[in-house]
Amino acid sequence: MSLASLQQTVDRNDAGIDLVVKILAQRFGERFSAAQAVREQHAHTTTWLPTQAPDGVVFARSTEEVAETVRVCAEHRVPVIPFGTGSSLEGHVNAPAGGISIDMSQMNEILAVHPEDLDCTVQAGVTRTQLNAHLRDTGLFFPIDPGADASLGGMAATRASGTNAVRYGTMKDAVLALTAVMADGRIVRTGGRARKSSAGYDLTRLLVGSEGTLGVITELTLRLHGIPEAVSGGVCPFPDLETACNAVIMTIQCGLPVARIELLDTNQVRACNAYSKLDLAETPTLFVEFHGTQAGVREQSDLFGEIARDCGGGDFVWATQAEERTRLWSARHDAYWAAMGLRPGAKGVSTDVCVPISRLADCIAETNRDIETMGLVTAIVGHVGDGNFHVLVLVDTDDPAEIAAAEEFIERLNWRAIDMGGTCTGEHGVGQGKMKYLAREHGAGLDVMRAIKTALDPMNILNPGKIVAGG
Amino acid sequence: MSLASLQQTVDRNDAGIDLVVKILAQRFGERFSAAQAVREQHAHTTTWLPTQAPDGVVFARSTEEVAETVRVCAEHRVPVIPFGTGSSLEGHVNAPAGGISIDMSQMNEILAVHPEDLDCTVQAGVTRTQLNAHLRDTGLFFPIDPGADASLGGMAATRASGTNAVRYGTMKDAVLALTAVMADGRIVRTGGRARKSSAGYDLTRLLVGSEGTLGVITELTLRLHGIPEAVSGGVCPFPDLETACNAVIMTIQCGLPVARIELLDTNQVRACNAYSKLDLAETPTLFVEFHGTQAGVREQSDLFGEIARDCGGGDFVWATQAEERTRLWSARHDAYWAAMGLRPGAKGVSTDVCVPISRLADCIAETNRDIETMGLVTAIVGHVGDGNFHVLVLVDTDDPAEIAAAEEFIERLNWRAIDMGGTCTGEHGVGQGKMKYLAREHGAGLDVMRAIKTALDPMNILNPGKIVAGG
Fold first, then answer.
1. Which residues of chain A does B442 touch, with a Cβ-Cβ cutoff of 8 Å?
2. Disulfide-capable partner of B168 in A408, B143, B182, B223 (CB 3.0 to 4.6 Å)?
3. A7-21, A355-369, B40-54 — which one is most confidently predicted on average?
């Protein structure tokens, strides 16, 4: 594996780009930038993929402005790369053929909240914490919580999820309707506010996870949930990863409606102890949370405690008070930063896979054997109720042998997950970094994806070089 | 509105059809039929749309046989119409341009059950009751329950749901992976057994609800659920429909995890009393069910009782014993047949719409005004937790004025639902009968659907004249 092989070569249309930069500069004035720093910031990726900057950035304020930008780009066959907050992990916002980045951060208006229907409509640049702050007085919340405070448009584009997905689903479940600008600048509204529909092809779920390659998402209607009357949560230590995985499997099989069930391996617990001033036993640990009525969460917590004990785990120490839970979950949310502290100065490379839950223990065990054999410094943290886990590899980028080992490790992990009936990404998305795995995962399905891409974006101007661009 | 306008004219390719009939007769022997009775049975629809029979029926036994049939048809540009159990409601299995019906009833093998992953893989012809009978000893069940004992492939194709959808979702949520035969005979596997994935376009959810127009579904991997430890259920009478709707809205808004919440209007209750020997008060009534632990379902039932009372409803009489609940839910499942008894000899035409729940009371009230003004005989029954309801119109087909009134009523109901931010079908699908509403519901999205159809089925041989065929 070499980094270059992850980034497809796409021809630049220099003449078209020069013209479009001039047109958009005139049209958008101060809300267009071709400054080097701004361009590079918009191709910033949280991976180790090299930055490929766009040629200019439009700071759009409305669906119509996005449509206008796309129309100009379409006319001159220039790529368009939507940009939310730049927290994607696989080179999603890189511009391998140059082009125009559309920054959605100024499209940050919450357009409507319908508490009686448990939904809201937002512009694509609204972030998840902004939405939840806005909802605070309604008794409702939006549950999808990827690590970053991502934009909701970006979360839809990458089919993001997070710690609550085991109970509340992922962005595919959360998005009821979308407004999107298609490759020719047409504005399309998909789905609706009804809770279900059988009226034609599910364009909403086709666009969710399409990473800007089929349309630019500009507005979203999202399902909301009532803030539960009671929440209980706590931590449970396990002697090893296998025992912890078994407790997760048993919990899911019992139909216990767990709201969050997160696995941290020993390295990750050690990192969290140091970073977030916790005093957890440094052993594989589950962070668990239940949502419901006072009686319900107590009953569920007790039941989980029994399951954990039966599986060989330690005591499940739980509380319903907000402070203690908040401390724990803040630590969980800071896990990435904590893990970075395991090896100061190293570059952190995060990868995620997802497997059927019956294969979770095997998959993590085999992955751990690789980590040991290869002598890598890693931390594992997972949304294990869904069979989804992340490995953060801390790499000394001055050591070519270590880079090669890390690359081989990641590759082996992805093939392993696919071969176990799983997927090369549970929630990070494909971008540039995971294209190489799609043929093995989807077979002839990849050709179907390409046919759809060609039909909806015949000139290949929407985020080219991503998802379906692999050879 | 005229019936003819619902059925698009599609040119027949007589020469191709003659040839394909000969090839398939030779290839499949007794598992091919061109007998008039068999052909007509395979275009039987539960609507009042005229029957348009295919030219022959293949009784396939494997994905490979379906692929072979599609390849033969593709070679000679002959339509292919997948057939499950024929319980669809909008002319889905009609053959307006003739062609070959692929009967899936012999593809009825349950291929694998993975209790540890709460999933199973089945051939498309397995019916929902067959699957649940098979699962009985596993402690698991498959919750999606449309009125008919439909095939799971057909249920996926129409994005079916039923009484449990408010808690367990619809077929879009239940299907994890699909095997489908595309228009050129290629076999594609979409999705996988991981609980979530961000690895490319969501082909699974594109095929779910595509009604055989994008591919022929031959196998499905389905999510299963643990049979709840306890179930409580009962009925609650209300003085009027509005009060009943308000109780539903309040229940959903409170986040009460209701498993089923079904509205029956006075006519429907009267019909059920007569048909199923019940003695319910003949007034709008909610059938409600909770799934959980013993303590949980008790707590939830009590809470629902309070909500109903607060909204002006009568007593919520509930029980946890299976017998009483079974009697009630059998009556609910027989509601269609019961309602047919309201007017013996009449033709029953069922239509369904779905609106945001805040508009449910309004939508039903306006619909009732139409029913009164037009002097129609109807019964209303709804999966109201989702904002979804059905109207069965009982029509004297010898009375042209009454037919015209019923058609106008249905048309007004569909426009009303769309204009309220809802959809022209919550679960029945489009088929031929609802194509006329799609332009208003989807706008430019319909063009996107057509572009996808053209890309994946350029010769328009997969179930032509449905969904996207409207002018």
1. 189-190, 199-200, 203
2. B143
3. A355-369
Cβ proximity of A383 and A162 under 8 Å: yes
B199 at interface of A, judged by CB pairs closer than 8 A: yes
Q: Which of A427, A430, A437 is closest, CB to CB, to B196?
A: A427
- Determine contact: B5 vs chain A, CB below 8 A: no
Q: What angle do CA B128, B133, B136 make, to 5 degrees?
A: 125
Chain B residues lying within 8 Å of A200, measured CB to CB:
209, 430, 438, 441-442, 445-446, 449, 467-468
pLDDT score recorded for residue B1: 41
- pLDDT for B43: 94
Average confidence (pLDDT) over A275-292: 96
Q: Is A33 helix (H, G, I), strand (E, B) or coil?
A: strand
DSSP-assigned letter for residue A419: H
- Is the distance from CB of A397 to CB of A53 less than 8 angstroms? no
Query: Could you tell me which CATH number the domain at B3-105+451-469 has?
Result: 3.30.43.10
What tokens were used for A421?
């009936």
From chain B residues 251-280, the ones with a CB under 8 A of any chain A CB are: 252-255, 257
Does the structural domain A230-322 have CATH classification 3.30.70.3450? yes
CATH 3.30.465.10 intervals, chain B = 110-226
pLDDT digits (tens, 9 = 90+) for A138-156: 999 999 999 899 999 999 9
Structure confidence at residue A471 (pLDDT): 59
**pLDDT tens digits for range B435-466:** 999 999 999 999 999 999 999 999 999 999 99
Host H or E run for residue B83:
strand B80-83
Place B190 in a pLDDT band, splitting at 50, 70 and 90. very high
pLDDT confidence of residue A163: 95
Q: Which chain B residue is nearest to residue A115, measuring alpha carbons?
A: B253
In chain B, the residue whose alpha carbon lies closest to the alpha carbon of A359 is: B117
Could you tell me which of B77, B64, B79, B81 has the C-alpha nearest to residue B27? B64
- Given a contact cutoff of 8 angstroms between Cβ atoms, the answer to whether B53 and B43 are in contact is yes
DSSP assigned state of B342: T
Is the pLDDT confidence value at B54 over 60? yes
- Who's near B306: CB < 8 A, 6+ residues apart? none
Nearest to A386 among B192, B195, B438 (CB): B195
Class for the domain spanning B110-226: alpha beta
Tell me if B356 sits within 8 A of B421, measured CB to CB: yes
Relative to beta strand A388-395, strand A347-354 is antiparallel
Q: Which of residues 13-72 of B touch A (CB under 8 A)?
A: none
- How confident is the model over A34-85, as pLDDT tens digits? 999 999 999 977 777 899 999 999 999 999 999 999 999 999 999 999 999 9
Query: What is A334-365 written as a DSSP string?
Result: THHHHHHTTSTTPEEEEEEEE--GGGHHHHHH
**Lowest-pLDDT choice from A194-203, A206-215, A248-257, A307-316:** A248-257
* Partner residue opposite B194 with nearest CB, options A296, A423, A443: A423
Averaged pLDDT score across all residues of chain B = 95
| Chain A residues closer than 8 Å to B160 by CB | 198
Q: What is the CATH number of domain B344-431?
A: 3.30.70.2740
Residue of A nearest to B427 (CA): A198
pLDDT in tens, A401-449: 999 999 999 999 999 999 999 999 999 999 999 999 999 999 999 999 9
Q: What percent of chain A has pLDDT over 90?
A: 91
Best B196, B208, B248, B384 member to test A by mutation, with max A CBs in 10 Å, is B196
Which residues in chain B (286-315) have CB-CB distances under 8 A to chain A?
Answer: 292-293, 295-296, 299
A180 neighbourhood in chain B, CB within 8 Å: none
Query: Could you confirm whether domain A338-431 is CATH 3.30.70.2740?
Result: yes
Nearest to A422 among B192, B201, B387 (CB): B192
